[in-house]
Automatic annotation (TrEMBL):
Transmembrane intervals: 464-484, 490-508
Taxonomic source organism: Triatoma infestans
Membrane topology: Multi-pass membrane protein
Pfam families: NAD_binding_4, Sterile
GO biological process: long-chain fatty-acyl-CoA metabolic process
Coiled coil: none
GO cellular component, one term: peroxisome
EC annotation from Swiss-Prot or TrEMBL: 1.2.1.84
GO MF term list: alcohol-forming long-chain fatty acyl-CoA reductase activity; alcohol-forming very long-chain fatty acyl-CoA reductase activity
Name of the molecule in the record: Fatty acyl-CoA reductase
């Protein structure tokens, strides 16, 4: 196949990537190594206690996502990776003098995706990582000698106070300088109290600081070309390098991860609402193409592209609700603790009521068994964390957003046929049921580390768990029937209506 314009642009270039060890970052590195003739990829890597960045890089390249790359190009391809010790949350990105100079002298393209995604993080921390981290990247870009472009990975939810969002920059009431000054000069306790007032219409510190970070990028457009991409909820790979690949436990991947284990049996989800999910490989293509487009067009204003599905290929859980329950048994786990089932509940109240029966009671029982057998109980902690997160997640669970992706599709249509093939931004042919089938396989293999060879054993165990599940249900319903009879002083036959009523209530929950 002839080489496209995007591939030509990246040939021989040196790229600096922040967030390269994250979900999107590792997929981005894999795609660049596999499909372009990139010269070097410099990865900003945070040191971890007891681990040098060289050993972190050795672990990094063992990720299963690289299996296709190694098969096609051999393991020597990783010689193109250079780990650079640093941290976007530190002054000067935590770079040594020599490393900073190395980047200034060699880098052509900067792809900035590092961020904290923690919705519960306090304002001081999110400002340090999301806002000041982006400011530090922009300062580095100003010093780079042969910079072609800076691409910033933002989020479709930076404007989540709006229900319909276009691919444009929206004003932020607070200035970055004032927010940074407040964070640096206000005592922690006082800052915590003032945070809701500072955030104003923004849902949390994440969306607020990411919106301010966009302004840091757009304000530098007169100095060098830049681009912003706004993905929505990023989910498992659609097509490449491995359909269903993921290392993220967020969103539907996390739902499936807990459900197939048999520990998450209910979800607070309104199946009729549109949820905006976008596969990670489409996001990676958007980053690569967005950077190329800005570098060659040298725009006077920073272009913004939505990598989203809500207005183009909308997803609703009612499309896959029945299929998901089947997938839990099509790809069961040999490590499942109970028979998997998943029911969607359209309100937090119903979820909490149902969770009392289907999450908390089994959690106490199984954790007790685990403790007696010498294991580490985890289920109560898991459901406590889920419960605690409901308040912050409720606006995102039960709200519909519609993100226009017209400019993204225009960009896709401008690509050469070769580049459309390799770096497609078009999800028109995505079939959500087929996609979730691959996601279920991916969750089993890449999040639970269970290989396809163990499926036969897992399916046998699944049948045993089904029988046990039915027996437990019979015992529980029979016990309720018996206790009601004893409590009222009536015979079992006189209390017979308790059986269908109990089944109806359980069915609703």
């Amino acid at each position: 196949m002839p080489e496209g314009d995007v591939q030509s642009f990246y040939r021989g270039k040196n790229v600096f990537i922040t967030g390269g060890t994250g979900f999107v970052g590792i997929a981005l590195v894999e795609k660049l190594l596999r499909t372009t003739e990139i010269n070097k990829i410099y990865l900003l890597v945070r040191p971890k206690k007891g681990k040098e960045i060289s050993s972190r890089l050795e672990e990094y390249i063992k990720n299963p996502i690289f299996s296709v790359l190694i098969e096609e190009k051999g393991s020597d391809i990783f010689n193109k990776l250079i780990a650079v010790q640093g941290d976007v949350g530190e002054e000067n990105l935590g770079l040594s003098t020599n490393d900073r100079q190395m980047l200034i002298d060699n880098i052509n393209i900067v792809l900035h995706s590092a961020a904290t995604l923690d919705f519960e993080a306090n304002l001081k921390y999110t400002v340090k990582i999301n806002l000041q981290g982006t400011r530090r990247i922009v300062e580095l870009c100003k010093a780079i000698k042969n910079l072609n472009v800076l691409l910033h990975v933002s989020s479709a939810y930076v404007n989540s106070h709006l229900l319909r969002v276009d691919e444009q920059l929206y004003p932020v009431p607070e200035s970055a300088d004032r927010v940074i000054e407040l964070v640096e000069n206000t005592p922690d306790e006082e800052l915590e109290e003032k945070t809701p007032q500072i955030l104003g219409k923004y849902l949390n510190t994440y969306t607020f600081t990411k919106a301010l970070a966009e302004l840091e990028v757009t304000n530098s457009i007169t100095l060098f070309p830049s681009c912003i991409v706004r993905p929505s909820m990023i989910v498992a790979a659609w097509k490449e390098p491995i359909p269903g690949w993921t290392n993220s436990k967020n969103g539907p991947q996390g739902f499936l991860m807990g459900a197939v284990k048999g520990v998450v049996r209910r979800l607070p989800v309104d199946p009729k609402l549109v949820c905006d999910y976008i596969p990670v490989d489409v996001v990676v293509n958007g980053i690569i193409v967005g950077a190329w487009n800005a570098a060659i067009s040298k725009p006077s204003e920073t272009p913004i592209f939505h990598l989203t599905s809500s207005t183009y290929k909308p997803f609703r859980w009612n499309v896959v609700a029945c299929a998901v329950d089947q997938l839990l048994h099509k790809y069961p786990l040999k490590s499942a603790v109970w028979y998997p089932t998943l029911k969607l509940l359209p309100s937090i109240f119903l979820f909490k009521l149902s969770a009392l029966i289907f999450h908390w009671i089994p959690a106490y029982i199984l954790d007790t068994v685990t403790m007696v057998s010498g294991g580490r109980p985890i289920l109560r902690k898991l459901h406590t964390n889920i419960n605690n997160s409901l308040a912050r997640l409720e606006p995102f669970i039960f709200t519909e957003w519609f993100f226009s992706n017209k400019k993204t599709m225009e960009l896709h249509n401008r690509l050469s046929e070769e580049d459309k093939e390799k770096f497609s931004l078009d999800i028109a042919t995505l079939v959500w049921c087929d996609y979730f089938d691959n996601m279920a396989k991916g969750v089993r293999q890449f999040l639970h580390n269970e290989q396809p060879s163990s499926l036969e054993y897992a399916r046998k165990k699944d049948k045993i768990l089904l029988i046990l599940n039915i027996l437990v249900q019979v015992v529980v319903v029979g016990l309720i029937w018996f206790l009601f009879s004893k409590f009222t002083g009536k015979t079992l036959w006189e209390c017979f209506l308790v059986l269908p009523i109990t089944l109806i209530i359980f069915g609703m929950l």
